[in-house]
Design brief:
mainly alpha, DNA-binding, 238 residues, two-stranded antiparallel sheet
Length: 238
DNA sequence: AAGCAGTCCAACCGCCCTTTG
DNA sequence: CCAAAGGGCGGTTGGACTGCT
Protein backbone atom coordinates (compact mmCIF):
# COMPACT_ATOMS: atom_id res chain seq x y z
CA UNK A 1 0.00 0.00 0.00
CA UNK A 2 1.25 3.42 -0.93
CA UNK A 3 2.11 5.89 1.78
CA UNK A 4 -0.13 8.96 1.84
CA UNK A 5 1.53 12.16 0.69
CA UNK A 6 1.13 13.65 4.14
CA UNK A 7 -0.48 13.07 7.51
CA UNK A 8 -4.20 13.13 6.97
CA UNK A 9 -5.10 13.52 10.58
CA UNK A 10 -5.26 17.04 11.88
CA UNK A 11 -5.20 18.59 8.44
CA UNK A 12 -7.97 20.83 7.16
CA UNK A 13 -9.79 19.95 3.98
CA UNK A 14 -12.18 21.77 1.72
CA UNK A 15 -12.42 25.44 0.99
CA UNK A 16 -9.62 27.73 2.13
CA UNK A 17 -10.32 30.54 4.56
CA UNK A 18 -9.00 34.07 4.07
CA UNK A 19 -6.64 33.59 7.01
CA UNK A 20 -5.19 30.43 5.49
CA UNK A 21 -4.73 32.17 2.16
CA UNK A 22 -2.95 35.05 3.85
CA UNK A 23 -0.64 32.73 5.78
CA UNK A 24 0.30 30.94 2.59
CA UNK A 25 0.86 34.17 0.67
CA UNK A 26 2.95 35.65 3.46
CA UNK A 27 5.06 32.54 3.77
CA UNK A 28 5.76 32.22 0.05
CA UNK A 29 6.49 35.92 -0.25
CA UNK A 30 9.20 35.67 2.35
CA UNK A 31 10.51 32.17 1.67
CA UNK A 32 9.59 31.49 -1.92
CA UNK A 33 8.02 28.40 -3.43
CA UNK A 34 9.30 24.90 -2.91
CA UNK A 35 9.47 22.12 -0.33
CA UNK A 36 5.71 21.84 -0.21
CA UNK A 37 5.84 18.98 2.23
CA UNK A 38 7.35 21.02 5.01
CA UNK A 39 5.68 24.28 4.05
CA UNK A 40 2.39 23.80 5.90
CA UNK A 41 4.11 23.27 9.21
CA UNK A 42 6.52 26.15 8.67
CA UNK A 43 3.71 28.46 7.61
CA UNK A 44 1.48 27.42 10.46
CA UNK A 45 -1.10 25.82 8.21
CA UNK A 46 -3.02 22.66 9.01
CA UNK A 47 -3.02 21.61 5.40
CA UNK A 48 -1.49 18.95 3.21
CA UNK A 49 1.54 20.20 1.27
CA UNK A 50 -0.08 19.27 -1.98
CA UNK A 51 -3.14 21.26 -1.04
CA UNK A 52 -0.94 24.31 -0.38
CA UNK A 53 0.78 23.91 -3.72
CA UNK A 54 -2.51 23.62 -5.55
CA UNK A 55 -3.99 26.61 -3.78
CA UNK A 56 -0.97 28.73 -4.61
CA UNK A 57 -0.62 27.65 -8.23
CA UNK A 58 -4.29 27.74 -9.11
CA UNK A 59 -5.53 30.65 -7.09
CA UNK A 60 -3.11 32.76 -5.08
CA UNK A 61 -0.23 33.32 -7.49
CA UNK A 62 -0.06 37.03 -8.28
CA UNK A 63 0.30 36.56 -12.04
CA UNK A 64 -2.92 34.63 -12.42
CA UNK A 65 -5.38 36.02 -14.92
CA UNK A 66 -8.92 35.75 -13.61
CA UNK A 67 -12.14 36.03 -15.52
CA UNK A 68 -13.57 34.69 -18.73
CA UNK A 69 -11.47 33.25 -21.50
CA UNK A 70 -11.17 35.46 -24.53
CA UNK A 71 -11.95 34.18 -28.00
CA UNK A 72 -8.31 33.96 -29.01
CA UNK A 73 -7.51 32.03 -25.84
CA UNK A 74 -10.29 29.59 -26.63
CA UNK A 75 -9.02 29.21 -30.19
CA UNK A 76 -5.56 28.49 -28.89
CA UNK A 77 -6.79 25.92 -26.38
CA UNK A 78 -8.64 24.03 -29.10
CA UNK A 79 -5.69 24.14 -31.39
CA UNK A 80 -3.25 23.04 -28.71
CA UNK A 81 -5.58 20.30 -27.54
CA UNK A 82 -5.70 18.95 -31.07
CA UNK A 83 -1.91 18.81 -31.01
CA UNK A 84 -1.24 17.79 -27.43
CA UNK A 85 -4.34 16.01 -26.14
CA UNK A 86 -5.22 16.28 -22.46
CA UNK A 87 -1.86 17.63 -21.43
CA UNK A 88 -3.34 20.56 -19.63
CA UNK A 89 -0.17 21.82 -18.06
CA UNK A 90 1.46 22.09 -21.49
CA UNK A 91 -1.57 23.85 -22.89
CA UNK A 92 -1.75 26.19 -19.92
CA UNK A 93 1.92 26.94 -20.38
CA UNK A 94 1.06 28.60 -23.66
CA UNK A 95 -1.63 30.76 -22.08
CA UNK A 96 -0.05 33.40 -19.86
CA UNK A 97 -1.78 33.70 -16.52
CA UNK A 98 -3.92 30.61 -16.97
CA UNK A 99 -3.54 27.45 -14.93
CA UNK A 100 -3.86 23.86 -16.02
CA UNK A 101 -6.84 23.42 -13.73
CA UNK A 102 -8.58 26.43 -15.22
CA UNK A 103 -7.92 25.30 -18.79
CA UNK A 104 -9.09 21.80 -17.97
CA UNK A 105 -12.29 23.08 -16.37
CA UNK A 106 -12.95 25.41 -19.26
CA UNK A 107 -12.42 22.63 -21.74
CA UNK A 108 -14.75 20.25 -19.93
CA UNK A 109 -17.49 22.78 -19.27
CA UNK A 110 -17.44 24.87 -22.44
CA UNK A 111 -15.29 23.83 -25.35
CA UNK A 112 -15.94 20.11 -25.22
CA UNK A 113 -19.67 20.60 -25.45
CA UNK A 114 -19.29 23.20 -28.13
CA UNK A 115 -17.30 20.80 -30.31
CA UNK A 116 -19.76 17.98 -29.75
CA UNK A 117 -22.62 20.22 -30.79
CA UNK A 118 -20.70 20.94 -33.96
CA UNK A 119 -20.39 17.23 -34.60
CA UNK A 120 -16.69 17.16 -33.83
CA UNK A 121 -15.33 14.51 -31.54
CA UNK A 122 -13.46 16.43 -28.82
CA UNK A 123 -11.20 13.44 -28.21
CA UNK A 124 -9.62 13.37 -31.61
CA UNK A 125 -10.90 16.56 -33.26
CA UNK A 126 -12.37 14.76 -36.17
CA UNK A 127 -15.78 15.10 -37.67
CA UNK A 128 -18.23 12.70 -36.09
CA UNK A 129 -18.99 9.75 -38.37
CA UNK A 130 -22.56 9.79 -37.08
CA UNK A 131 -23.60 13.09 -38.51
CA UNK A 132 -26.74 14.29 -36.77
CA UNK A 133 -29.87 13.72 -38.83
CA UNK A 134 -30.47 16.12 -41.73
CA UNK A 135 -31.32 19.44 -40.21
CA UNK A 136 -30.62 22.91 -41.48
CA UNK A 137 -29.23 23.83 -38.05
CA UNK A 138 -26.48 21.30 -38.49
CA UNK A 139 -25.24 22.84 -41.68
CA UNK A 140 -22.90 24.89 -39.62
CA UNK A 141 -20.87 21.75 -38.96
CA UNK A 142 -19.58 21.43 -42.45
CA UNK A 143 -19.51 25.15 -42.88
CA UNK A 144 -17.35 25.59 -39.81
CA UNK A 145 -15.13 22.69 -40.75
CA UNK A 146 -14.31 24.22 -44.05
CA UNK A 147 -14.20 27.78 -42.86
CA UNK A 148 -10.96 29.66 -43.07
CA UNK A 149 -11.99 31.84 -40.17
CA UNK A 150 -11.49 31.37 -36.46
CA UNK A 151 -13.58 29.54 -33.91
CA UNK A 152 -15.64 32.67 -33.59
CA UNK A 153 -17.78 31.08 -36.26
CA UNK A 154 -18.71 28.38 -33.80
CA UNK A 155 -20.77 30.67 -31.67
CA UNK A 156 -23.36 30.81 -34.39
CA UNK A 157 -23.59 27.03 -34.36
CA UNK A 158 -24.29 26.31 -30.71
CA UNK A 159 -28.03 26.14 -30.92
CA UNK A 160 -28.27 22.49 -31.92
CA UNK A 161 -31.12 20.89 -30.02
CA UNK A 162 -29.26 18.68 -27.57
CA UNK A 163 -31.37 18.35 -24.48
CA UNK A 164 -29.01 17.27 -21.75
CA UNK A 165 -25.39 16.79 -20.86
CA UNK A 166 -26.08 13.07 -20.72
CA UNK A 167 -27.05 13.15 -24.35
CA UNK A 168 -23.86 14.99 -25.13
CA UNK A 169 -21.85 12.33 -23.37
CA UNK A 170 -23.69 9.60 -25.25
CA UNK A 171 -22.97 11.25 -28.54
CA UNK A 172 -19.35 11.61 -27.63
CA UNK A 173 -18.95 7.97 -26.69
CA UNK A 174 -20.77 6.91 -29.83
CA UNK A 175 -18.44 8.97 -31.91
CA UNK A 176 -15.43 7.60 -30.12
CA UNK A 177 -16.49 4.01 -30.59
CA UNK A 178 -17.12 4.53 -34.27
CA UNK A 179 -13.76 6.12 -34.71
CA UNK A 180 -11.85 3.60 -32.63
CA UNK A 181 -10.64 1.56 -35.57
CA UNK A 182 -9.67 4.61 -37.46
CA UNK A 183 -7.70 6.09 -34.62
CA UNK A 184 -6.07 2.95 -33.29
CA UNK A 185 -3.51 3.00 -36.04
CA UNK A 186 -1.71 6.26 -36.59
CA UNK A 187 -3.78 8.57 -34.50
CA UNK A 188 -2.62 11.93 -33.26
CA UNK A 189 -2.08 10.41 -29.83
CA UNK A 190 0.63 8.22 -31.27
CA UNK A 191 2.56 11.15 -32.54
CA UNK A 192 5.74 12.01 -30.79
CA UNK A 193 4.66 15.19 -29.08
CA UNK A 194 7.88 16.00 -27.36
CA UNK A 195 7.60 18.19 -24.27
CA UNK A 196 9.85 20.80 -25.79
CA UNK A 197 6.73 22.19 -27.36
CA UNK A 198 5.84 23.79 -24.04
CA UNK A 199 7.66 26.49 -22.11
CA UNK A 200 5.69 27.58 -19.09
CA UNK A 201 6.78 30.85 -17.53
CA UNK A 202 10.42 30.77 -18.66
CA UNK A 203 13.06 32.20 -16.35
CA UNK A 204 14.77 35.25 -17.83
CA UNK A 205 18.20 33.67 -18.11
CA UNK A 206 17.03 30.99 -20.49
CA UNK A 207 14.82 33.19 -22.58
CA UNK A 208 17.25 33.29 -25.46
CA UNK A 209 17.43 29.54 -25.63
CA UNK A 210 13.68 29.39 -25.36
CA UNK A 211 13.36 31.56 -28.44
CA UNK A 212 15.23 28.91 -30.40
CA UNK A 213 12.92 26.25 -29.02
CA UNK A 214 9.91 28.32 -29.95
CA UNK A 215 11.02 28.29 -33.56
CA UNK A 216 11.50 24.56 -33.37
CA UNK A 217 8.18 24.06 -31.67
CA UNK A 218 6.29 25.94 -34.32
CA UNK A 219 8.04 23.93 -37.00
CA UNK A 220 7.03 20.75 -35.24
CA UNK A 221 3.50 22.01 -34.70
CA UNK A 222 3.25 22.67 -38.40
CA UNK A 223 4.40 19.15 -39.16
CA UNK A 224 1.87 17.71 -36.76
CA UNK A 225 -0.85 19.80 -38.30
CA UNK A 226 0.04 18.44 -41.69
CA UNK A 227 -0.24 14.95 -40.26
CA UNK A 228 -3.62 15.80 -38.83
CA UNK A 229 -4.95 17.32 -41.97
CA UNK A 230 -8.27 15.55 -41.53
CA UNK A 231 -8.88 17.25 -38.23
CA UNK A 232 -11.78 19.67 -38.59
CA UNK A 233 -10.83 21.81 -35.63
CA UNK A 234 -7.37 22.33 -37.00
CA UNK A 235 -8.88 23.20 -40.33
CA UNK A 236 -10.64 26.04 -38.59
CA UNK A 237 -7.39 27.84 -38.09
CA UNK A 238 -6.14 27.67 -41.60
C1' DA B 1 -41.96 30.53 -4.02
C1' DA B 2 -40.24 25.99 -4.14
C1' DG B 3 -38.13 22.21 -6.11
C1' DC B 4 -35.39 20.26 -9.48
C1' DA B 5 -31.81 19.83 -13.02
C1' DG B 6 -27.89 21.59 -15.03
C1' DT B 7 -23.50 24.15 -14.79
C1' DC B 8 -19.28 25.67 -12.98
C1' DC B 9 -15.08 25.45 -10.55
C1' DA B 10 -12.17 24.80 -6.39
C1' DA B 11 -10.21 21.12 -4.31
C1' DC B 12 -9.02 16.31 -3.58
C1' DC B 13 -7.16 11.78 -5.03
C1' DG B 14 -4.03 8.70 -6.75
C1' DC B 15 -0.76 7.61 -10.26
C1' DC B 16 3.54 8.61 -12.51
C1' DC B 17 7.96 10.79 -13.10
C1' DT B 18 12.05 12.89 -11.21
C1' DT B 19 15.27 13.62 -7.72
C1' DT B 20 18.03 12.30 -3.94
C1' DG B 21 20.74 9.62 -0.82
C1' DC C 1 21.75 0.73 -9.25
C1' DC C 2 17.92 0.97 -6.29
C1' DA C 3 14.42 2.48 -3.14
C1' DA C 4 12.14 6.21 -0.96
C1' DA C 5 10.58 10.85 -1.00
C1' DG C 6 8.86 14.73 -3.25
C1' DG C 7 6.60 17.08 -6.83
C1' DG C 8 3.56 17.37 -10.82
C1' DC C 9 -0.20 16.01 -13.42
C1' DG C 10 -4.83 14.50 -15.11
C1' DG C 11 -9.18 12.67 -13.60
C1' DT C 12 -12.86 13.13 -10.60
C1' DT C 13 -15.86 14.91 -7.03
C1' DG C 14 -18.83 17.81 -4.32
C1' DG C 15 -20.95 21.91 -3.21
C1' DA C 16 -22.43 26.49 -4.53
C1' DC C 17 -24.84 28.83 -7.85
C1' DT C 18 -28.22 29.59 -11.68
C1' DG C 19 -32.06 28.93 -14.56
C1' DC C 20 -36.18 26.65 -15.60
C1' DT C 21 -40.70 24.70 -14.60
Amino acid sequence: MRKPCCEKEGTNKGAWSKQEDQKLIDYIKSHGEGCWRSLPKAAGLHRCGKSCRLRWINYLRPDIKRGNFEQDEEDLIIKLHALLGNRWSLIAGRLPGRTDNEVKNYWNSHIRKKLIKMGIDPNNHRLNQIIPRPNPQNDCVSAAATSSGSMSNISACTKAPIKSSREIDQRASQATSVLEDETSGSSSRDLNLDLTIAFPNPPLQVEEEMQKNIKGSFTMAREIETTLQHSPTLALFR
